[in-house]
């Protein structure tokens, strides 16, 4: 099988998407070719991409192919890869195998290529659940960085997919967990949380049993952090798990409480197998996050839901 073209979702200019044919470069000896089954949309990253903000920030010029949440079937292997890989299902966090178009990060295409070591074999893991390995590993990485101890009181701000996955990872560390959001539907879907607080109707501080040891912000909004650092204990830790245009906080409370701030970019290599193992053991659950599902012919509707519908946790695109 020699496939050198693919169909892809291409962002041609700010807020403009097309479904276009793209050329694939020759498969390198240690690469594999994957036929895409499912993809999803990283709302935070792809919102910035659609707005054109990643052109300078991450050197990702238009036209570009978005996405880094892909599950598919390995259909071709390079000369140095075992033919036993053919037919295996794998998760892939993006593709760089295109000609004439920027991969940003290239996952939204009917065929993608990657180094064989970056095609994580599912080994029986549900392929839809596996599409969320990227956000699960990102949340896992942040929780590892913040070093939660058993019994610590952890406050997770935001119950979008990253917030929900961070809450699951924190619970595995033995945390006492408070989760917050402004959308009740997200709180209703959250599968962990000793205390759930809708901060549009209830005072968060009235629900806190003690001062907070760790705050995990998954909203990407500085004002959310600034409003709630007063609930932290002295020398508490704050994890910035969203994306922020600027660090903009009044200094007084972080100074008086000697708070430590940690940033988390994305998953490390070791986080993906750790998360996949937790998913195999049903300790991390992801399938329920795909609240909205679309055939690839409705990709524009999928993006509209993912980027603008507060009731959409994640949108799944079916390429079959």
Automatic annotation (TrEMBL):
Gene3D superfamilies hit by this protein: Medium-chain alcohol dehydrogenases, catalytic domain (3.90.180.10), NAD(P)-binding Rossmann-like Domain (3.40.50.720)
Signal peptide: none
Keyword field contains DNA damage: no
Matches recorded under SUPFAM superfamilies: GroES-like, NAD(P)-binding Rossmann-fold domains
Coiled-coil regions, chain positions: none
Pfam families registered for this protein in UniProt: ADH_N (PF08240), ADH_zinc_N (PF00107)
Cofactor: Zn(2+)
Keywords: Metal-binding, Oxidoreductase, Zinc
Name of the protein in question: Zinc-binding dehydrogenase
């Amino acid at each position: 099988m020699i496939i050198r073209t693919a169909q892809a979702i291409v962002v041609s200019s700010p807020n403009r998407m097309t479904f276009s044919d793209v050329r694939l470069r020759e498969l390198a000896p240690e690469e594999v070719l994957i036929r895409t089954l499912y993809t999803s949309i990283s709302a935070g990253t792809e919102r910035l991409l659609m707005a054109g903000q990643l052109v300078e920030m991450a050197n990702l010029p238009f036209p570009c192919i978005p996405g880094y949440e892909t599950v598919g079937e390995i259909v071709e292997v390079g000369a140095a890869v075992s033919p036993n890989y053919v037919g295996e299902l794998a998760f892939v966090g993006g593709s760089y195998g295109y000609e004439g178009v920027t991969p940003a990060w290239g996952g939204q295409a009917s065929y993608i290529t990657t180094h064989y070591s970056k095609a994580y074999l599912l080994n029986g893991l549900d392929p839809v659940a596996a599409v969320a390995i990227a956000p699960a590993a990102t949340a896992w990485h942040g929780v590892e960085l913040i070093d939660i101890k058993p019994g610590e009181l952890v406050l997770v701000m935001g119950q979008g997919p990253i917030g929900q996955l961070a809450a699951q990872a924190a619970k595995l560390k033995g945390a006492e967990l408070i989760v917050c959001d402004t959308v009740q539907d997200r709180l209703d879907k959250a599968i962990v949380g000793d205390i759930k607080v809708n901060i549009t109707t209830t005072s968060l501080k009235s629900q806190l049993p003690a001062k907070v040891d760790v705050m995990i912000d998954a909203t990407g909004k500085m004002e959310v952090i600034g409003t709630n650092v007063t609930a932290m204990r002295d020398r508490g830790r704050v994890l910035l798990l969203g994306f922020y245009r600027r660090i903009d906080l009044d200094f007084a409370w972080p100074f008086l409480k000697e708070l430590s701030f940690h940033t988390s970019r994305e998953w490390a290599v070791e986080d993906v197998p750790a998360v996949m193992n937790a998913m195999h053991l049903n300790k991390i659950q992801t399938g329920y996050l795909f609240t909205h599902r679309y055939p690839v012919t409705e990709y524009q509707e999928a993006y509209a839901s993912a980027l603008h519908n507060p009731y959409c946790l994640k949108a799944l695109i079916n390429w079959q």
